[in-house]
Structures are given as structure tokens and as C-alpha cells.
Design brief:
The complex is a heterodimer of chains A (about 475) and B (about 250).
Chain A (H helix, E strand, L loop, with lengths): L3 H32 L7 H31 L7 H23 L23 H30 L2 H4 L15 H32 L8 H34 L9 H13 L16 H32 L6 H23 L2 H7 L4 H28 L11 H23 L14 H40 L1
Helix pairs in contact in A: 1-2, 1-3, 1-14, 2-3, 2-4, 2-7, 2-12, 3-4, 4-6, 6-7, 6-8, 7-10, 7-12, 8-9, 9-10, 10-12, 12-13, 12-14, 13-14
Chain B lengths: L1 H29 L10 E4 L2 E4 L1 H4 L4 E6 L7 H14 L7 E6 L6 H10 L8 E6 L2 H8 L3 E4 L4 E4 L2 E5 L5 E6 L4 H11 L19 E4 L4 E4 L1 H31 L1
Parallel strand pairs in B: 3-4, 4-5
Antiparallel strand pairs in B: 1-2, 1-5, 3-8, 6-7, 8-9, 10-11
The chains are: A mainly alpha (about 475), B alpha+beta (about 250).
The structure holds protoporphyrin IX containing FE (HEM).
The site of protoporphyrin IX containing FE (HEM) has 24 residues of chain A, from helix 1, helix 2, helix 12 and helix 14.
């Protein structure tokens, strides 16, 4: 059983994530309403909101995944609370700086801050350094958190055990839980992409400090940006999958999943391939040699296929071969896996060079990543939150599911996503605040998407009421 | 390992040596780029028109020459004419051959057109202007009078103007067909792939263009891309090494 202080920190994380999530969904709805011509927002206002929405959503679901993994790690190894607190302080400071840069400083270069956009100042001069520093603060906080967890794991497991390499031998004495294996490969990817973010920010600051006399290679900056951005977005999912492997059998009243050579092989392969998959963001960058574009396509396939294959196989076999005690938690895990797979198929299509020629920078891109985030990792994290608020009190979750909440979630979520996909199919470009008259279908789709998003928001609030109440209780009872 | 260290060192060295060499031409070709061209009055076949009368109909390429040139002007025009015969872009444009020498008269320019058998080609316009200074400032063209040779010392300059009168691209020197084809495409709002060549103020390019082989060679930036992944790999090895000690102590 986790100590009270761990529960308190986790409940604070959950409350923060929930608050910021609701705010960010409202921002998303405002964007869709603007694109649907139902309301007017000035250009800079729209892109400020888009920047904050993107950065906040990625940030909160990243910390949600990290906090969940941190909590579950206590079952196997000793992890200190101070790294969790350190990460929280840095996250709060980073988010405040980020919101200030966008809403007070009017910074609106997008959460991907693609070079050289942040240096073409169309906002207050201090906003660019503050935005970049915010990302620096977040990166440092999360880097310490990730390395701290890795250190804790390596104190108990050797390198070979942590990667599950013993399963490639005929006999092995030590077992590595799948949760530990997935956590290790994910944290390693996270460390790599956070180091990349720090390097990238260093390059930005060197250019700013030189009074823009030093000019960096746009290709290098874009490569680094997508190594960071693409990888971190994917690792969010893997954090959620680690919790799924750990909890799905448990909450369904079944024995724990065991590790095996094919699970170890799949996740080791994912760890390597995910580092090269970002090359699919560079297809339009003609200077990049063709070989790298081909590597990008193949790595995108191989990064997703092994993990998808073993997880989908395990989840489907588990669900259809066993009589399961269905609860909100395992249902959300199951639906989250489906969302991840559907979004993953969209991603694989987009990463195929011949399709990317048509889909590049169209609404297909937000379509696929919203699918695996909004209906994938968000649902898996909510599953964990839902489970943990009972674990706080050493209770097991009642076998009752609110059908209304789930139906609203599915209609709202997939309806909202469908409008993005249709937009992609009609070649509506992404990141337009309003669509020109030639693309009026884009406005109609945006309006419908806004309506679905409101339904999604209602479902999210309903699902979270119990979670929030219990988190407030554990937080206040501990502090009183 | 030593080979890689040597390669890094060599790349840094060659990069630093090349900084001083290639910055100059790139800068002058970029001078006044994306500025609106001065709308000077030009005289064609005895009639005066504002420059905008031409570029507003179709994009233009201005070639600044003088008829008494014993140097580059004639080969420059000849090469331009030959190249254009082979370039089938399907894009609209006109060539405006404009004298920068105040001594050149309208009939000198018509004679020049006849020398190249272009007097009846509607794509070619031969003209003079009384506002040479203004035009030179606008295109960034420089011509120095050398009284000993009675010649101007000048660059061979092509200035591409789009139909909004914006200087989209400049070519200095005798350029090949591909460069001219890109110029035509660019003044017609076409996309021209371009990649910055290393200059004095940039040093971390992923690739370096080698004009001799026409190929891109990996540069320092390419190695930098791998640094975070390598650092992570080393960190994991270190943690693994430390944990091995701990593990043995435990068991
Ligand atoms: C119902 C909830 C949501 C709504 C209404 C919404 C809406 C939007 C809209 C309208 C855009 C701009 C699309 C464009 O035209 O390019 C956008 C971008 C984005 N959204 Fe969402 N979104 C929602 C949920 C999420 C979630 C759950 C995540 C992540 C966990 C997320 C992450 C992002 C990111 C990263 C961007 C890209 C921003 C950029 O291009 O810089 N969104 N969203």
C-alpha cells in the first residue's frame, strides 16, 4: 500500500490535470466555433489559444502518465516522493510561464514553436524567451523525474532484467513484470526527447543572445523539434499502456499478466524504432536524403506494430476468453486501447509517403493524434484515476458502470474526431483560424465538431465528479 | 572510435575554413530581395511607359546591360537567349533588356535587339530609361566607370520581378538553365526548394552542399541530431553498470 504522502501528491496531480483539461477542452471548443464562423476571435487570439491548448494538453497527459507510473512503481521499487514534488513545482512554474507568455505576452507560434517562427516576433518581445524558458523549466523538472524513476528501477533490476533480456534465454530465474519493462523503455525514450528539447532550447537561446547574428540550420532545428514533439506525444501512450498491463487483469479479477520473450522483444523494438519514427514529419524537407525518408516510414510502422500486436492480442484474448468483472476502470482501459489502435491506423496511413503527399498538414493530422490522445491515452489515464481513488481507501471499485456517461463519451469523442477526419478527406488545411469560402465545408464540419466536443466535455465532467471528490477528500483529510 | 573523433574534428575544421568563402555572393544576391521595384519610366520604341505597365501584365526578368560593352554583356545575353530556348516552363514572363548607360539611345537598343534577332520577339523588350540611378538603387545593381578602358565594370545581373512588382530573385553571373528556370518559376509564385549554404554566421548545418559534385554531404548538424540519443544510451549504460554492483552486493 502506498504511503499517505504519495496519495496526497497523486491526488494533487489529478486535480491539476482535471482543471487544466476542462480549461483546454473549452479552448478547443472556442477554436472549433471560430473555424465554424459561429464566433469571432482575432487572429492572434486564435493562435494564442491554439498554442496554449496544444502545449497544455500534451503537458497534462504526460504528467498524468508519469504520476500514474510513479504511483504504481511503489509496488516494486522504492521511489522517493521528492522527485514527484520537484516535478510538480517545476510543472506549475512552467505552465504559469507558458500561459503568461501566450495570454499576456501574446506569443502564438504553436506548441511546436517551429524555427524560425518564435524569432519573428509578432508579440511582446519578452514572450519568446519566457515561452522557451517555460519549456526549459518543464523539461528539467520532467527529466529529473524520469531519471529518478530509472535510478529507482535500476537499484533493484539489472540492465538485462529491466529490459527483459532474460526471456531470450531458455531458463531464467528473475521475472520482470511487464509494467517494469514498459516503464523502463518508455522512460528511456522520454529522457532522450527531453535532452533533445534542452539542446533545441539552447540553440534558440544562442541565436537570441547573438542578436540574431548567429543563424541556425532550419533543417537541424526541425529535426530536433520533431524528435522532441513526436516522441513525447507517443511516450504518453506508452506510459498509459504500462498502467494498463499492470491493472487491467487485476481490476477484472484475473491473474496478473506474465512477461514473455515476445512481449520483451516487442517493447525493446518499440524503444529503438520510436526514436526514428519522427522522420515522417520531414517528408517535405527535400534536403533530407531519401534514405532517411524511407527509414521514417519503416520506423513508423515498426514502432507501432510490435507494441500494438502484443497489446491488442493480449487485451482481445483477455476480454473474449475470460468472463470479466466489468467496471468503469477496465471498460475505460478497453475503450482507450481501441482509441489508440484507431488513431494508430490513422498515423500509419499518414506516415506512408505516398499518402502523406495528400494528407500532410491537412486536418487528418489533428484527426489521428486527437484519436489516440483524446480517446486513447486520456481514457486510459481516466481508467487509472478511477481505479486509484478507490485504492486510496483500500477499497475495490463497485461493479457499476454509468451507461449514460460512456455513451456520451463515445458519441461526443468519436463525433468530434470524425469531423477532423472528414476535414482531412476534403483536404481542409490544419491550423487555419477561419476557412476561406472555397473551403466552406471546413466551417460546417467545425461547427458540428464543436457540438460533439460539448458532449465530450459533459461526459468528462460526469466521469470525473467522483474522482475529483475523492481526491479533494484524500488531500484535505491528510492535511488536516 | 578514433575515426569518428577525427571525422568530427575534420568537419569542424572544414566548416570553419569554408565560412569566409561563400558568404559574399549569397549576400549580394539577397540584397533588396522582396522589396518593391522602383516604378521608373522606361522608353520602348519611342514610347514612354511606367515599369508597372509591364510587370502588372506578366512577371518580368530585367537584364541590365550597355550596348558598348566589350565584356560580359553580349555573351550574357547570348547565353540567356540560348537557355530560354531550351526552357519549356509553360509560365508567362517577359525579358526586359534595359540599358544602364546614359549614352545608349533608343536606336542603340533596337540595334542590339537586331544583333540577337530578337526585334520581332514579343517576349523580349529592349528599353532605355532616364532614371538609371533610381533603378540601380532599387535592384542593387552597381556599375563603376573605368575611364582608362572607357568601359563600365559591372555584374551580369538578372532581376526577377513578379506581377506585384516585388523583386523575387536575383541571379548574378552567367547562370545555368536550371537557375534561370527556377527564376521563372519563382516570379510566377512557384515553389523553389532552397537550402541555406553555410555562411559566416551559421555553423551547424545538417548537410553541406558541394557545388563540384552537386551533392549534399552530412555536416556537424547531422551529428548533433544524434547527441541526445547517445547521451541517453550512455546514461542507461552507466545506471546499468552501477546497478550491477548493487545487484551483486544484494545477491
Ligand atoms: C474535445 C476536446 C478537444 C477539442 C475540441 C480540441 C480542439 C482542437 C483544435 C480545434 C485544434 C486546432 C486544429 C487545427 O486546425 O489545426 C487542436 C489542436 C491540438 N490539440 Fe486539441 N482538442 C481537444 C482535445 C485534445 C486533447 C485531449 C489533446 C491531447 C491530449 C489535444 C491536443 C492538441 C494538440 C497537440 C493540438 C495541436 C496544436 C498545434 O497545432 O500547435 N487536443 N485541438
Amino acid at each position: 500500500m502506498a504511503e499517505l504522502k504519495h496519495k496526497r501528491v497523486l491526488s494533487l496531480w489529478i486535480l491539476t490535470v482535471f482543471l487544466l483539461f476542462v480549461a483546454s477542452i473549452i479552448m478547443g471548443i472556442l477554436m472549433r466555433l471560430t473555424q465554424g464562423n459561429a464566433m469571432k476571435m482575432d487572429v492572434s487570439g486564435f493562435f494564442e489559444i491554439m498554442t496554449v491548448h496544444g502545449a497544455t494538453m500534451i503537458g497534462i497527459w504526460f504528467v498524468a502518465g508519469m504520476a500514474s507510473v510513479h504511483y504504481l512503481l511503489h509496488r516494486y521499487v522504492r521511489v522517493t516522493t521528492w522527485i514527484n514534488l520537484f516535478a510538480m513545482v517545476f510543472t506549475v512554474i512552467g505552465v504559469v510561464m507558458l500561459w503568461c507568455a501566450a495570454f499576456i505576452g501574446k506569443f502564438h507560434a504553436g506548441w511546436t514553436f517551429l524555427y524560425p517562427l518564435p524569432l519573428f516576433v509578432a508579440w511582446k518581445h519578452w514572450a519568446t524567451p519566457v515561452f522557451l524558458s517555460a519549456l526549459g523549466v518543464l523539461s528539467v523538472g520532467w527529466l529529473v523525474w524520469s531519471v529518478g524513476m530509472l535510478v529507482a528501477i535500476f537499484k533493484k533490476y539489472t540492465l538485462q532484467q529491466a529490459f527483459g533480456w532474460q526471456y531470450f534465454k531458455k531458463v531464467h530465474q528473475v521475472d520482470t513484470p511487464p509494467f517494469i519493462l514498459i516503464t523502463v523503455v518508455t522512460l528511456i525514450g522520454i529522457v532522450a526527447c527531453l535532452l533533445t528539447a534542452l539542446l533545441l532550447l539552447g540553440l534558440f537561446f544562442s541565436e537570441i543572445a547573438s542578436g540574431n547574428k548567429l543563424v541556425h540550420d532550419a533543417l537541424l532545428m526541425k529535426n530536433l523539434t520533431y524528435f522532441f514533439g513526436h516522441t513525447v506525444a507517443n511516450e504518453i501512450l506508452y506510459l498509459c499502456l504500462a498502467t494498463l498491463y499492470e491493472l487491467l487483469p487485476e481490476v477484472s479479477g484475473r491473474p496478473k499478466w506474465k512477461n514473455s520473450w515476445y512481449i520483451a522483444l516487442a517493447w525493446n523494438a518499440t524503444m529503438i524504432f520510436i526514436l526514428f519514427a519522427f522522420f515522417h514529419h520531414m517528408y517535405m524537407d527535400f534536403v533530407q536524403p531519401e534514405a532517411m525518408q524511407v527509414i521514417g516510414q519503416l520506423a513508423s510502422y515498426f514502432a507501432s506494430l510490435p507494441a500494438v500486436a502484443v497489446t491488442l492480442f493480449s487485451v482481445l484474448a483477455f476480454v473474449f476468453k475470460n468472463s470479466i468483472r466489468w467496471t468503469t476502470t477496465n471498460l475505460l482501459f478497453f475503450l482507450g486501447t481501441m482509441g489508440w489502435i484507431i488513431g494508430g491506423v490513422g498515423a500509419v496511413i499518414d506516415s506512408t509517403i505516398s499518402a502523406n503527399v495528400f494528407l500532410h498538414n491537412s486536418l487528418w493530422v489533428p484527426a489521428h493524434f486527437h484519436t489516440y490522445l483524446a480517446m486513447g491515452s486520456v481514457l486510459m489515464s481516466l481508467a487509472f484515476f478511477n481505479w486509484v481513488v478507490f485504492d486510496f481507501y483500500n477499497q475495490s471499485e463497485p461493479e457499476k458502470i454509468s451507461r449514460l456517461q460512456i455513451i456520451l463519451l463515445l458519441i461526443g469523442g468519436f463525433g468530434f474526431l470524425l469531423m477532423f477526419y472528414l476535414g482531412g478527406a476534403y483536404s481542409i488545411p490544419r491550423r487555419f483560424n477561419v476557412y476561406p469560402s472555397q473551403l466552406s465545408i471546413g466551417s460546417a464540419l467545425a461547427l458540428a465538431a464543436a457540438a460533439f466536443a460539448v458532449v465530450y466535455l459533459i461526459a468528462i465532467i460526469l466521469i470525473n465528479i467522483r474522482i475529483v471528490k475523492r481526491c479533494i477528500k484524500i488531500f484535505s483529510s491528510a492535511s488536516s | 572510435m578514433y575515426k569518428n573523433i577525427f571525422l568530427c574534428f575534420f568537419l569542424i575544421l572544414t566548416r570553419s575554413l569554408s565560412w569566409g568563402l561563400d558568404g559574399k555572393e549569397a549576400l549580394s544576391e539577397e540584397e533588396n530581395i522582396y522589396q518593391k521595384i522602383a516604378n521608373v519610366a522606361i522608353t520602348v520604341k519611342g514610347k514612354e511607359y511606367p515599369l508597372s505597365a509591364f510587370y502588372s501584365k506578366s512577371p518580368i526578368i530585367i537584364a541590365q546591360v550597355f550596348t558598348r560593352c566589350t565584356g560580359i554583356c553580349m555573351p550574357f545575353l547570348l547565353q540567356l537567349k540560348t537557355n530560354l530556348q531550351f526552357i519549356q516552363t509553360g509560365k508567362s514572363y517577359k525579358i526586359l533588356v534595359l540599358s544602364f548607360d546614359p549614352r545608349d539611345s533608343e536606336s542603340d537598343m533596337q540595334q542590339l535587339a537586331e544583333t540577337f534577332s530578337l526585334q520581332n520577339d514579343s517576349n523580349w523588350i529592349f528599353a532605355t530609361t532616364d532614371e538609371i540611378e533610381t533603378l540601380n538603387n532599387s535592384t542593387g545593381f552597381r556599375a563603376l566607370w573605368d575611364s582608362s578602358s572607357l568601359q563600365y565594370s559591372h555584374e551580369a545581373l538578372l532581376t526577377g520581378i513578379n506581377s506585384e512588382g516585388i523583386i523575387k530573385k536575383k541571379l548574378i553571373g552567367m547562370k545555368n538553365r536550371e537557375a534561370i528556370s527556377n527564376l521563372i518559376s519563382e516570379i510566377n509564385h512557384g515553389f523553389i526548394p532552397s537550402y541555406s549554404i553555410p555562411g559566416q554566421n551559421s555553423m551547424l548545418n545538417c548537410f553541406n552542399y558541394d557545388p563540384v559534385s552537386g551533392k549534399n554531404k552530412p555536416g556537424i548538424g547531422f551529428l548533433i541530431m544524434a547527441v541526445p540519443a547517445l547521451a541517453t544510451f550512455l546514461l542507461v549504460l552507466l545506471l546499468g553498470y552501477l546497478s550491477k554492483g548493487l545487484y551483486h552486493r544484494r545477491t
